[in-house]
Amino acid sequence: MSRVVFVLVPGVHLLDLAGPAQVFGTATDLGLPYELGYVAERELVPSAQGLTLNARTEWPTTGPDDLVVVPGWRISPPHDGRAPGPEPLERLRAHHAAGGTVASVCAGALALGRAGLLDGRRCTTHHELQDELAARHPRATVVRDVLFTTDDRVVTSAGIASGIDLALHLLAVRHGPALAAQVARNMVVYARRNGDEPQASAMLRHRAHLDDVVHRVQDVIDARFTEPLSLARLAVGAGVSERTLTRLFTRATGGLTPLRYQQTLRLERAEHLIGQGSTVAAAAREVGFDDARMLRRLRARAL
């Protein structure tokens, strides 16, 4: 039996906790021997979303096969006000020193840093906290804009939904990618992402604007980016001329034309497939290219 122990802090984000807990809970439903536990300095732990959680104040005995996870919490000045106290930090240090694995989601990396577990190691956190993590722990190597990192049994993730990716990765390492894929399918997760994938997808990076026409066109491209989509067809659907659509789209997305936006989505999806073991040719076909030459050119341009 392997234990997964979650260390809860007042203001804990529910998805930071529930995402990885669901992954290991689903693995248990599939017959893997995991036991989930929740510890805190007080029995009642208010979450950031208003739901109060019940936890144990006594730590279970853990061994090298066990995992201790620190989910993130709502950050408000002073940022350390809700961080785990001396006893949980000592427990984290002792567990790692005994050969166990520790992990964090989002602001949980600040707790690992305070425990001294990030010194000399690669780590990451939510993009809004990366500067603070680097400033507080200058001996750590903060890797920016990735989903998760692993370094000597210290695993850190970007936060919120990326805790699911972190947990699926740990399952894949221990039990193989097929089992992790089975858990992901059971959870209706769109895809099991690699750790070095960006925290914000192309669909999100180019949506920070207020142009309704462009958003409607992006909705079409997002849903059908593997298909041929002519500018004329997109313009008719948006109710504007081709010239107007190009002008609005370029201004709203910071310089991308509709075609370049579609190619960006194809490239991102292809990179994910290649990272999962697909060949360049197979990935090119999957995302809608007639052959692999265009994909190779786009990859070279991106590099």
TrEMBL record:
It comes from the Bacteria. It comes from Streptomyces violaceusniger. CDD domains: GATase1_AraC_1. Residues 215-303 form the HTH araC/xylS-type domain. Transmembrane segments: none annotated. Keywords: Transcription, Transcription regulation. SUPFAM superfamilies: Class I glutamine amidotransferase-like (SSF52317), Homeodomain-like (SSF46689). GO terms for molecular function: DNA-binding transcription factor activity; sequence-specific DNA binding. Pfam families: DJ-1_PfpI (PF01965), HTH_18 (PF12833). This is AraC family transcriptional regulator.
